[in-house]
Amino acid sequence: MAELTIQIPDELAQRLEPLRNHLPELLSQLLDSTSPSSASLAFPSEFRSALTATSNLQEIPQAYLEVLDFLVTRPTPQDIVAFKVSPEAQERLRLLLDKNREGTLTESEIAELNLYEQLEHLMILMKARAIASVN
Hints:
By secondary structure, this protein is mainly α. It folds into two domains: 22-59, no CATH class; 61-135. Helix content is 69%, strand content 0%. It has eight helices and no strands. Residues 35-41 and 45-57 have low confidence and may be disordered.
């Protein structure tokens, strides 16, 4: 396995520490779920060519982009506790859950729903840590 060293702000390092053992998997999932067209929203231009070269790319779900955009603002613990995705992202999740109950999800929708589940788990952990840091 290759080793990658990056420089990040101390605050970000502290926030990523609980996820340390899962970072390779999370980065892989992010790259696997990034399409060349949406890559410009999430990555600087120097990374786009690497993403474009990756096969089996999919669109990043709106809620995922919203969480990424929120996190890059360096939110306070109070901001984290109050955070909610947009009504549009919530409606998309409701649609996926309805289709799941009906058993009519496509493969890409199953992958999207799985990503929502992982994102929800991450947000629950972040909110719990934010609440603990305030108290």
